[in-house]
Amino acid sequence: MYQKNPSITKGIDWLMVWLYISLILFGLVCIFTVEYNTNDDVLQTLLGFKKEYSKQFYFFIISLVVAIFVLLTDSKFFTATANLGYAFGILLILATFVVGKEVGGSKSWIPLGFMNLQPVELCKIFTSLALAKFLSLPETNFTKTKSQLIAAAIAFAPAILSVLQSEPGAAIVYFSFIIAFYREGLPAIYITLMFSLTVLIIASIVMPPNTLLIVITTIGAIFIWILKRKIKRDKSILLIIVAAWTLSVGVQKFIVPALFQSVLKPHQVVRILTTFGMDDYQFKDSVRNVAIQNEYRKLGTKKKGKDEKVESYNVKQSKIAIGSGGFTGKGFLKGTQTRGDFVPAQNTDFIFSSVGESFGFIGCTLLMLLYFGMMLRMVFIAERQRSTFSRVYAYCVTGIMFFHVALNICMTLGIAPSPGITLPLLSYGGSSLLTFTILIFILIKLDADRQMVLR
Amino acid sequence: MPVFNQSRKNVVQLMLVAMFLIIIGRLLVLQVFTSKYKILADDQGIFRKVLYPERGIIMDRNGLPILQNTVIYDLMVTPSKIRGTDTAMLCAILDIDTSEFKKRIVAAIIKNKSYRASVFEALLSEEKMAKISENLYKFSPGYYLQERPVRKYPFEAAANVLGYLAEVDTNFLRKHLNEGYVAGDYAGMTGLERSYEKVLMGDRGIEYWKKDNKNRLTERWENGRFDTTATAGHNLYTSLDIKLQEFGEKLMENKLGSIVAIDPKTGGILAMISAPTYKPQLLTGAERRKNFSQLFRNPALPLLNRTVSASYSPGSTFKTLQALVGLHEGVITPDFQVTCSGAFYGCGSGRPMRCLDIGTFDLRNAIRLSDNTYFATVMQRVINNPKYPNVDSSLAVWDRYMYAFGLGHRLGVDVPSEKKGYIPTPAFYNKSFGEGHWNYCSFRSVSIGQGEVDVTPLQVANEMAFIANKGWYIIPHVVDSIDGGDKFGVLDKYKERHRVIDIPDSLFDVVHDGMQAVVDGGTGLGARVKDIQICGKTGTVENSIRGVAQPNHTFFCAFAPRDNPKIAIMCVIENSGRYGGTYPAPIVGLMIEKYLNDTLASIAREQQAEAMSKLNLIPSRINQELRRQDSLSHSKDSTYLLSKGYIKLIKDTIGLEDSEDDEDLRRPKMVDNRNKKGKEKDTPKQVQVQPAILPDKQKNTQPDSSKNKNR
Question: Which of A443, B220, B385, B431 is the most core-located residue (most Cβ within 10 A)?
Answer without folding.
Answer: A443
